[in-house]
Amino acid sequence: MNDKTVSSGVERGRRNVLITGSATLLAMALPVDSALARTADLPTDLPIHQTDSSEKPSMATITTADGTTLFYKDWGPRDAQPIVFHHGWPLSSDDWDNQMLFFLAEGYRVIAHDRRGHGRSDQTDIGTDMDTYAADVAELASALDLKGAVHIGHSTGGGEVARYAARAEAGRVAKVALLGAVPPIMLETEANPDGIPMEVFDGLRSALAANRAQFYLDVPSGPFYGFNRPGATVSQGLIRNWWRQGMAGAAKAHHDCIAVFSETDFTEDLKAITVPTLVLHGEDDQVVPIGNSAHKAIELLSNGTLKTYEGLSHGFFSTHPDLVNPDLLAFVRS
Question: What is the pLDDT of residue 59?
Fold first, then answer.
C-alpha cells in the first residue's frame, strides 16, 4: 500500500478582492416638435427581427434510464483528457467554477453535472441513494463517451466518485481525487465507534425542514469554510454563492441526501479502487472530520496518497485554490 502522507502548512490570511464598477446613464432629449418632425424622414420598410423560439440555446442535459433529466457542463477540446468534477451537498456543479476554468486553461476537457435533485437537474423525489448517484455518473460517462477520465469529488461528491470508480466500466477511469470526502463512513456505528452520532444528522434535517433558507446561510457562514474560527477572513461572496446553489435545488432531495452522505458505507468501494487515488483534506475540517474520513480512507486504498492542509476547512479548495489547484494538476500529470 502506498499511504504516503504529506503535510502542507498555509497562512490563514486570505485576500479579499473587491471588484467595483460604476455605470453612467446618458440622457438625450429632443424638443417634442423637432422629434415629431424627424419622423417624416424615417424609412417605412425597416426590417423587423422576429425571434424564433428554435434559436434559443438549450442547456446540456441527459435523460437517465428512470426519466430524470440531469444538467451538465462540458467545456474544452473533445479529444483532450477529461476531468470530471463531482460537487458536494447541497450544491451544484457551479461549486467547481474555479477548478474548471483552471484545468480548461491547461488544455483539459472539463465536465461537471448537477446531481439529481440539485442545481438545474430535475427535482425528482426518487433515486436519492448512492447507487443511483453512481449509476447517473455511469450514464453520463457513456453518453459523453468518457475514457481515461480523472474523477474529482468533494464531500458527498467524493463518495459518489468512490462508488462509481469501484464499479466503472474498464477504461473509463484513469485516476481519482477525493477532497474532504465522506468515505469510508461518517455515522457512528458499532463498526465505526468514533463516527458522528445520529443526533447530529437529525439536527441537520430539522434545521433544513424548519427554515432551509436560513440554514443555508448558517452553514457557509460558520463551519463549512471555517469562517467561525477566530481571525478568519470571511468571504461574503462564497457565503452567498453557497446559498444560491443550495436554494436552487430540491428541499426533499437535500433532506433525503443527509442520510445518503452520512450512512452510506464506502469501505468496500475504497478497497475495490485500483487506480491512483489522491486524498486531500483540510486538517480543520469541522464538517467531515479528518480522523473519521481521510485518515481511515487511506488505509483502505491500495494505490492512494494522502495530503493534508494545516488549518484549512471543509471548503478548502474554494478558499485556497492557489494551493489546491497546483496539487491536483501535478497529480493529473503524474
Answer: 86
